[in-house]
Amino acid sequence: MTKSSLIFTLILLINALKIHGFPMENEMLQISDATIYVEKEHKKDLAKVVQVLQEEVQKRSGILWSSSKKLSKGDQWQVIITLEKSLPDNLQKELDQMDKIEAEGYRLVVVPNEKKVIIHALDRRGALFGVGKLLRKIEIRKGGISIPDNLKIGSSPQYSIRGHQLGYRPKTNSYDAWTVAQYDQYIRELAIFGANSIEIMPPRTD
Prior knowledge:
six-stranded mixed β-sheet; 206 residues; three-stranded antiparallel β-sheet; 5 helices
């Protein structure tokens, strides 16, 4: 078999696998130029959620995702964080195809042909946990950010309390030596991974 015929055969095989629904390797889409859109009526409620997303992306990539006042027309990537189900039909249908969510849950979906990443939640905590999942799914490097083209996740918490203890005492975990900034980052990352509570253990509580 010649090299050209082998390549042709491989192309036919790959196309056949796609047609019959066999999972193929995800394509990573470049979203470094993305902006963030939040509906006007929710900008105040979601301000901290947007701040977390912007800061965590910027500190790892050097790229600041700016906020946008309106939906883009598909010419630039955009991360939509919404508490409503009132998106344009071409975007809303993507959410309607997913399972329902409950309190503190979220839907996260990429719409490549519209250049949109949608995070839909019922409340502010759900939006934060959706942002946390997005941060864990995107690939971040200095000067570049990419996302899987088929990312589609719906999730609601199984337990209402999901907490973690922080022992402020001179043990080997060294929490008593942490700075305020280190505490802030650690608690933020607990939230990014889905925690909704913490308990501070003071000295001499053994």
